[in-house]
Amino acid sequence: MFSGFDATVLARMQFAFTVSFHFIFPAFSIGLASYLAVLEGLWLKTGRELYLDLFRYWLKIFAVAFAMGVVSGLVMSYQFGTNWSVFSDKAGGVIGPLMAYEVLTAFFLEAGFLGVMLFGMGRVGKGLHFAATLMVALGTFISAFWILSVNSWMQTPTGYEIGPGGQFLPGPSWAAIIFNPSFPYRLVHTVIAAYLTTALAVGAVGAWHLLRDRQNAHARKMFSMAMWMAALVAPVQIFAGDAHGLNTLEHQPAKVMAMEGHYQSHPHGAPLYLFGIPDDRTQTLRYAIAIPKASSLILKHDPDAPLAGLDTIAPDKRPPVWIVFWSFRVMVGLGFAMLGLGLWSLLARARKKLYDWPWLHRAALVMGPSGFVAVIAGWVTTEVGRQPYTVYGLLTTAQSRSPIAAPAVAASLLAFILVYCAVFGIGVWYILKLMNQGAHPHETGPEQDERAPIRSAGITPGPHQHAAIEDMGEDSGAGAVT
Amino acid sequence: MMVNFDLATVWAFIIAFAVLMYVVMDGFDLGIGILFPFYRPGTERDQAMNAIAPVWDGNETWLVLGGGGLFAAFPLAYAIVLPATYPLMIAMLLGLVFRGVAFEFRWRDPRHQRFWDRAFFAGSLVAAMAQGMTLGALLQGVHVEGRAYAGGWLDWLSPYSLLTGAGVVVGYALLGACWLAIKVEGDAQTRAFRHARAAALATLLAMAAVSLATPFLGQQYFARWFHMPLLIALAPVPVATVSVAVLLWRALGRREEWPPFLYALALFGLGAIGLGVSMWPYVVPQSVTIWQAAAPERSQVFMLIGVGLVMPLILAYTGWAYWVFRGKVGEHGYH
Fold first, then answer.
1. What is the recorded membrane topology of this protein (chain B) (predicted)?
2. What mean pLDDT value characterizes chain B?
3. Is the CB of B81 inside 8 Å of chain A's CB atoms?
4. Cβ contact (<8 Å) for B105 and A72?
5. How many domains does chain A have?
6. Closest CB to B41 among A81, A403, A473
7. Residue A165 is part of which domain span?
C-alpha cells in the first residue's frame, strides 16, 4: 500500500496522521474544560439548575473526548523516539526538559483531578469539586503552554549551543529557550483557536436543538453563550493570526512565501493571491486571481514594499507550496466565516431574534465543525511550511529520522490508520449521539448516566435498571460491533 | 559496583522511581483488564471497572513521565531503546488506546458493551505483554553502533523476552486481583482471592524462572550476582522475596484485604531491586551507561528543580484522589 514511499516520507505521514487526529481532542478539551469551569462557577454563583444541567451534560461529552485525547497523546510522547530517534538524540537536551515539565505540571494535574471532576460530585463538597474542575482546566492550559513552547523552539530556535557531536545543548538561560520568538504568538493563536473551536461546537449543538424547539431553555443558553464567544473572540483571533503571520515573516520568510504563493520576488509591491493552482515543478501559480500590491500592504503595511519570493531560496530548502498555499486559505476563509457568524449573532441579538432566526441556527450548525477544520489547516500550514527542517534552519527532517526500514514504518502507519479511524470514529459517533440527545432538566452526570447507572458518587439506581443493563450485556453477543 | 550520587545517578533513580510507580499503579488496573474475562458480565464487571475508573488516567500518566523523563534525562537511551523495541512500542500504544477508550465507551453504548469489554481485556493484555517483553529485550542486550540502534526488526523476540512478557502479565494480574479484593465484597471478593492465588503462583514461578535465566544471558549479570562480597550483600533480596511470597500466600488464605496488595507491591519492589542490581550502571544494558546517555548538566539540573518542587504536590493530590474514592465500590457505585 505504501510501497512507493521512502521511510522519511512514511515517518512524516505517520507523525502528521497521529498528531492531526490527536489535536482534534485537545483543541476541544482545552476549550471545553474552561467552559465547564464557567458553567459550574455560574451554577455555584446563581444556584440555577440550568447551569448544573449544562455542566453535567457537557461533562459527559468531555469525558469521552478527554479519554481519546489521553490515549492518542500517549502515542505522541513515544512517537519522537520510535520514528525520530536521531532528532530525539540531538534535540533531547533542549526540548526534553520542556516536555518533562509538561508531564509534571500539566498531565498529572489534569489526570489527578479528572477522577474527582467526573465522578466526585457526591463525594466532595461543592467548592472542592469546583476547585477540581478549575485544576483540570488549568492543566489543559499549562499543557498547551509547554508543548507550544517546544513546537515554537523547533520553528524559531534560540538560546541553544551546539555540542561537539552536533547535539543541541541548552545555553545559560532557559527563558531564552522557552520564550523563543514565535512562542507568544503561537500560544495566543492556538489557545484562542481552541476556545473558538469549542464555542462553535457548543453553538452548533444549541442551534440543532433550537431548530427543533425554539423554547428549549438549555439550547438557548448554550447557543447564546457560544455566540457571544464567537462574536468577541473571532475578531481577536484574526488580529492574533495577523500578528503571528508578521512574526513568521520575520523568522521563517520561506513559509510566508509559500502561504502567499510568491514563487517570484516582487520588488515593487507584491500581489495578494486569492486563488491559484501552485505548480512546484514550473514554480508558477496558475489561474491566479490577485489583488495588486495587497500582500505588501498586509505584510509590510506599505503597498510598494518589496517582498522576496521563493526564487531567493535554494530549491532544496523550499517547502511544498501547494499544501501550504491551500491550507492557509482554508484557515483564513473559515476564520472570516466565524467572524461573519459572530456579527450575524450580534445583529440577531440587536433585533431580539437570536432564538427565532432559523437561518442563523442553520449557519451555526454548518459552522459547528469549522473550528476543527481551521485548527488542522493552521497546523498543516505551519508544519509543512517549515519543511524541510525539524529544527528550523539547523536540522533537516531527512536527518532526523530513526534507522527504521520503510516496511516497518509503513506497517505501523497502516495499524495507526486502521485503529484510529475505527476507535476514534466510534468515539466521535458517541459524542454526536450525546449531542443529538441534548441537555435536559435534571441532567445526569457521567457518574449517574441513565445508561450507566453503576458508577460512583453515591447514586443508587433501582434494581430494574440494573437488570436492564445486564440484559443488554447478554444480548450483544459475540463480536457484535457494527 | 560503586554508586556516586552525581546528577546522572540521581536521574537514574528518578526514572526508576517513575517506572516503578507506573508498574505498580497502572499494573493493578491493567491487571483488572487482564482478568476481565473471568468476571461475570453485568454487575461484577461494572464493579471491577468502577474500582479503577477514577484513577486509571493518573496511573497511566506515570508512563508518560517514564518515557518523557527518559527522553529528557537520557535522550540517547530513548533514541536507542524505542527503535530497538519498535513493534513492541507500537503494540503497547495501540493496546492502551483500546483499553483507555473502553472505560468511557462501554457505558456509552450498552448494546456493544461486550465488545468494549473484550477490547478492554485485549488492550490490557497486549500492553502488559509488550511492556514485559520490552524489559526482556533490554536485559538480553541490544545491538548499538555509534549513537544508534543497529539491530534487526525482530531482535527483541526471544524465549527470554516471551518469559519476561508472561511474567509481567501474571504479575499485573496479581496486583489487579489484590486491588479488587480490597474494593469489592461477597462473591466477587471470593473470586478475587482465588484469582490472586493463581496469579501469585504464576508470578512467583515467573520470577524464579527470570532470576535463573538472567545470570546466563551475559557474563556481566553472572559476575555481578556471583561475585563474593556482593553475593553476601545481595543475599537478603532472594531471602526477602521468599518470605514475602509466604506472607502473601497466607494473607490470601485468610482473606485479609489490604495485606495481599501490600505484599504484592513488595514483590514488585524486590523485583525492581534485582533488576537495578543487574542493570547498574547501564541504561541500555551492556551498551550505554547512564553517564554516556545523560542529557547536558543544565537540562538535568533544570528538570531536577521541577521534580523537587512539583513531585511532592503530585504525590499529595494523587493521594487525595485515592482518598476521595476510598472504600468499597459496592454494587451501585461508591457508598
1. Multi-pass membrane protein
2. 88
3. yes
4. no
5. 1
6. A473
7. 7-252+315-471
